[in-house]
Amino acid sequence: MLRPALIDGNVTLKELTDDINRPLNTKPGVAWTIGFLVALAALLLGVSLVAYQIKVGIGTWGLNKTIGWAFDITNFVFWVGIGHAGTLISAILLLFRQKWRTSINRSAEAMTIFAVMCAAIFPLIHMGRPWLAFWVFPYPNTRGSLWVNFRSPLLWDVFAISTYFTVSLVFWYIGMIPDLATVRDRATGKIKKTIYGFLSLGWDGSHRTWSRYEALCLILAGLATPLVVSVHTIVSMDFATSVIPGWHTTIFPPYFVVGAVFSGFAMVTTLLVITRKVMHLEKYITIGHLEAIAKVILVTGSIVGLAYMTELFTAWYSGNYYEQFAFKNRIVGPYGWTYAIMVFCNVITPQFLWFKKMRTTPALLFVLSIIVNIGMWFERFVIIMTSLSRDFLPSSWSLYKPTFVEVGTFIGTFGLFFTCFLLFVRVLPVVAMWEVKSLVGHHKEEDSHES
Amino acid sequence: MRRPVVGVVQAVLLVKNRDGRPIKIEGNTESPLNRGAVCATGQATVLGLYDDERLKSPLWQGQSVTWEKIDQEVVKTLSDIKAQNGNIVILTSALPSPAAKALLKEWIQQYPTTEVVTYDAISSSALIEANRQSFGVEGVPHYHLEKAHVVVGINCDFLGTWISPMEFAWAYGERRNLRNDQNKVFLKHVQFETALSLTGSNADHRIPITPADESAIVLDLLKSVSKLASQSIDITVPHHGVARDEIESLARDLWKNRGHSLVISGSQELETQMAVNAINSLLGNIGETIDLDNISFQKEGQEKTLAALIQKMKSGGVQALILHGVNPAYTFSSEEFSKALKTVKLSISLSERLDETSSQTTAVCPDHYFLESWDLLEPVSSLLHVRQPVIRPLRDSRQAFESLLKWMGRSETYYEYLRTYAKNQYFGRQTSHLTFDGFWDRCVHDGVFQFSQTPSKSFAFNASLSTLSETVLQKQKRLTSQSLQLVCYEKISVRDGSVANNPWLQELPDPISKVSWDNYACLSPALAKSLFCEEGDVVKISTDQSSVVVPVHIQPGQALQTIGLALGYGRRQCGKVGEKVGVNAYPFLSSGNHASFFNAVTVEKTGDHVELACTQLHHSMDKAEGREERGILKEATLASFIKDPGNKKKEENVTLWEEKDYEGHHWGMVVDLTNCIGCSACVVSCQAENNVPVVGKDEVRRQREMHWIRIDRYFSGDENNPETSFQPMMCQHCGNAPCETVCPVLATVHSSDGLNQQVYNRCVGTRYCANNCPYKVRRFNWFDYAHNDRFDYNMNSDLGTMVLNPDIVVRSRGVMEKCSMCVQRIQEAKLAAKREGVPLKDGDIKLACEQSCPSQAIVFGNMNDPQSRVAQLQKDKRSYHVLEELNVKPVVSYLTKIRDQRD
Lengths: 451, 903
Known about the structure:
A: Formate dehydrogenase/DMSO reductase fold; 17 helices; B: 28 helices
């Protein structure tokens, strides 16, 4: 089977460089400006609400004696999940030599970085005393021999997330150096030249540089690969290692990882459909790319569906009353509607991707990706909140309703995410030029032995 | 640390003083009334001492003045009135102090035109009158529940609010205690009642009745008992809701246990109380379980006296009015009272604060708080309770009777008066002390002195059974009604409303409804359905005299076609905490001529909806909740318990890990569910001991109350007459604690003596521990609850914070807290034992919850000591752990609840 061309039309290397560099050297368009202002407003809302919450207390949220986590940790897991696609695309697909990734890996990695930033906010602000958050790091201190609890999954989270963020950031930055050099070389202003010059670390484009550079990229990809699996595995252990029915489940690590890839690719779709349109990158981010992503969504979505069914089967087969009750309660309890949304968005919706028409129509894909993102948010909400709301003692069963502060903070993280992303598309090359260039012109003979 | 003894009407208290301030009230085991326990309201009185609303000085026409000035004015006016032969009225609540009564007699000699009117908003006047007519004894008998084998309560909340609840709760616990001797007779309890009360919720057999049927049921019971006593009365009992054979089987039970049974009624209908007396008389209970020779003075007042006084005032017949311990503008009618007060030349309130009444009087002469004063009380004849001050008065107040002495022109203090009184009246009645000083010191030291009592004997029943039956029948005919009926009741927390400004009591969830900070119309589920009302719907309840607008609470167990409404709420003036909480139900009582209930009540929905501050959102524990599978509550009938006293042999849980070894102490607790009556004394006791903050109505609505111990209350079975189960729940101090493994910063750790310890300083507040707690006992500080205007309760003022226990820190915002098993008490007892060089004995450590429990449901001790009560009881066949299958190894064991029911 022959793969279709990865880049549309016959672009020359110069055209490619011009196209990708254009946004960096022109004034922003109306769409970008409006988008940026909206994102900035959302970010400011988030910042002010977080400031208010830190000043007054977590009581400004809707949590209670029974439900200690709801919006906060749901948002955390949601954003960490989104952060999965970038590393998966750039590391695993690099190792598997999937060339189609080259057009999208830069933006997907950027998405990862920003999503992990959004995610990291929640473990910090969900603390009762966030100003003491540094206590979760094992550092030598003067408080006797006061150490952290290595048995706590929250501590593993600290390590997993910080490692993931660091490696992703380094990988992203290293991957950008040749392109930054290109930008440097084409920059007109002195300030721009200095900044990009500094960031490109004196890249000279020699064969030796290139040879070492590509080796480094492969090593980093190798390092990043286990992280793709480890981060969400560890996040899932926050729940899996607890005693709460609905949390205490061994299926969680693979379930969470697949869910993360699923939601990550959905978010990539959402962003790329807009970016390619607004930044006029249709030539480089083609329908073919979108379709490839759609196929990943279809596969992971189906696995997620299978996980849901497995969970139900396990609950029934376990004979454990609490387990059975937890799942029955998810489906028909007071938050049954969230379960319905979850199943509709995550199990039913992706099945439409069996149709080629769906996979190749950006508008439909866009809508679908949003639905999947909503569904995955609800998945985490269902797992976290409904399990807590009705556990062992009926006397403690409770209900939860988010407050304005919680919703606003969540909106604020979207503000942060899009502010960062919109800045990214204006100041950094959004497509990995040096990688795509390897496909331009001679992709035809390569394709034949790649698929 | 000083622990002086303070006698009150219901109890003798030990007041724990730290740095010169009382911080905790406990019971003195020497008193036969409370035997070491203190009820929720009693526990909370220590906070009342530090109430910001207590007056700082006397007021004359609203202006702060000196005592000299006010004495001058009062004496001048009183002398003028005396000279003009004007009438003086002293309106007082019932006085259990014989010395005060004597003092009032002397006052009358000084001011001969004085009339003393005794008024209690909630009284037992029908009972007292019935005893006068039946036996010629005017008073409340001293009931001996501890001698009973069968008790029948008829609309009588004797474990919660009626006459001497702590004493009854002790006896109840004692008679139903299966721990010591499983062969003794287990007290059988049958309750007929309208609103589900604390007492009814504990009954082996509870029968919901409408109040209109009450006298018919009593009559029917009388008929059945008299038949068994071969004194058959020929009467046709009108139809009522209770099955004939139920009454007959109950009568047989009573007859079988004659002399060891007790029928009590809280009715305010004279005829009903007479019939109850007749039943007890036929059963030979007089002189056995009912002592009429040594009567109780715990309830003496009348509520009907006030209406006549108001009339007299209106007609200008009263020139001076002195009010003591009463608040008629709240408990009667504000407008009526204000109107009547205008004609009075001099009105003096002896209230400690500005309330609905004292804000209208000419003068307010603030009384000492009871913890600042001296008194002699005789709650039951020949039982003397002595009160001494435990702190210097915090305000420029003066004891009420000292004010009276002053105005009588006497120079002695009330303390001197009391001593003289004791010397003349009591010293001679005892033989153990040769000198009066010795006797007095003993009294003050113990707070209690028991004189030898008259042996109780039987009294003849004066009335003829047939005439009585006829009267009851006549009365019953007038009462019979097809309409809705309203009953007013007291809650175990704010009781009659005089302590409404106490935030601990306002936040204490009602044991039955689990609602705090409010009163509400209790409707049975069936009635609510027929009226299309849901929980929280606001309705207007009207009788032809009065009406209130109040939210609905759907209360399983409330008799059909009846509405229950708590008194004690809707204070308009009492202080920042109690004002605007709930609605005032007293106007129904005062306008309805103090009947027990009101007929022809109408209910209409206003269309509004409010959310009640309920601490428990799910109430049922039945098949739908997997009662069997969960195995949280274990209950058995007495018959099956006797046949097979044990749960099946427990399977040992296997573990992969090395078991922890506890050398020395390993603390544990046992909660006997058969004994726990749900009274919630432990909740307030724990709150006082551990500086647990009050969070207010809004935060309770958000499910964020901070209580370290809670009483889980579950209903099962028929929702119109459910079985009620109470389960005290506090940190279970698990051996394999799920909270300990998940904390990232090791803020909750295990101690070498088996306690799960929360380290506030280290806590960063991830709340992971609370999420992972299967018992959901951890409480999070969502806000700063101390010194925060948002939480303007006792922890927001310098005076209010004086109640805080200095052994415990006040937790800051953002940290988790929970039951510590009163680790400070463990430490204190350990240190005391070490100082004395003796090993710690079982029972040396009493936790706050255990200490206050009137029915001895909680036992704490060292599980490593095989002789300790805890170790013994954990071997009891009734013993089980909640959620045992999780293998978290809790140290708190529960003992299966036993009910004397048919299988």
